Fold:
Amino acid sequence: MGEIGFIRDIGVMIVSAAVLVLLARLIKMPSIVAYILAGLVIGPVLGMLTLTTYDPDVPDRALDVITGLGIVLLMFLVGLELSFDKIRDVGKVAVLLGIAQIAFIGVGSIAAALALGFAFIPAMFIATALTNSSTVLVVKLLEQKRETSLTYAHIVIGLNLIKDVALIIVLTLLGGLGMVGSDELGGVALQLLGSMLGLGLLVVVAGLCARFLLARAFHWAMNAPRLLFVWSLTWCFMLAVAADKLGLSPAIGAFLAGISLAQLSMANDIRRRVHPLMNFFLAIFFVAIGAQMELGATLSLWPSVLVFGAFIVIVVPIFTAWLTARMGYGHRSSFMVGSSMGQISELSFVFAAVGVMSQLIEIEVLSLITMLGLLTIAISSYVIMYNGWIYEALQKRGWLRWLKGGAESDRVEPGLKGHIVVVGMNPLGQKIARDLHKRGETVLAIDTDQRKLAGLPCRTMVGHVDTLSVLEEAFLPDAKFAITALKIEETNNLFVYRCKQFGVPVAAHAFDGSVARELRRLGADLLIESRTQAYRQIRERLDDALAMANLRPAPAGPAKLTGDGAS
Structure:
């Protein structure tokens, strides 16, 4: 009966999460909010589910394992979003802003919590939870808006990195305190020192592996997508186990594993590969949090929810924008940075959950932090999506005069449009990409192997085109032509199918007579049957496409691509 009950609980959690996510998409609500609301509905509201994951007196081993995996994978996912290349040009600003914001939010939150009647330890947990912002949410929304290359986005990502690192240090200290079996000051100090040394050792190991080992190993694994997926999880759990052996939280090891992989050229592809698995465990984790909320106690804390919610959604963005402007950034950049920081992080839930499991705070504090997460993440997601429009509206009314910043450096640049996507950098693909670039076309070359992209004069991208997110990142719907030079039948078929869905003319490599019929059935506009024939046909077909789009007049006759086409 126990196993059947566990399966039933998992089924109820997954079904409710799926339903709420579908409804949330209609209003563009983040999935994290939908998961927590699903737990709230099936738990405290309808009573369909009774969980004791965070009750040390009533252990639930199976769900403990799954929610523990959710925490580890969440930390791994957050680490994967933090590439140093994105913040290299704003590192100093990010550090200064991070320190100032942590101090401001920490002092303000502790003062507010004590004034609202919370004891000192719960007040510390609340303040620490509120200092962190959602890296995953912000990065996803910036990618959706196609603004990750802007200066303000670099500042936001760098600021979140600093705050994430600060939370990791706090988790390390919390782990050290949780292991102390003596009340003597000497024992506490020794245990904390051991935890910090363990963290330092883990950072060194992760850094050395990222510098000398991971790049070669994962470059080799790029040719086998399943191997890339397995190796990524292997690295995640290796560092998670190492952290546990050093007396740290496994989540810390997973976070460092994610950061080390984020520095690799194929980080985006790794993220896309592991994301579906993470979604399952994250759904269970956040549904479990919502299902165990003390709804009555949380509703009785509505003054605290309003005070802390207003502080995070209104006061913190204003302070951050003002401070960014004082550092010399323009009105718009400063406003965009501030408006991106009005939420608490999914890691705040992890931190509060660890506090409950360590019996340092009560479940009511976790419920309060969860309710604040629901409120701030939901509001902030809409603010970030429309902060450009909000800025223009406030600027016209003269309500941003207090932002006396420097010269504006950010300009919102449109993504690729009217470009040519070339997939597969074998000799044929490289030749096509080089020649099209030479004739003045905007070319995006895609391959799974970074080494094959090296030296190409055009734009490049690492990824598997059988993944829809890769095609979206390549702006395939806005391309005027697409070419696949691959010798992989399944991938070519899927790529042609996607191109026809988006209405993009496509040429495909019919490397064998047996594949030509299926490519024609799928609607390929041009079949490349030989290298020599390829250059002539692609030039003619491309000129026709350009003429039809009225981008330039059609030439009197087909010109020849440079080179003999033999390589």
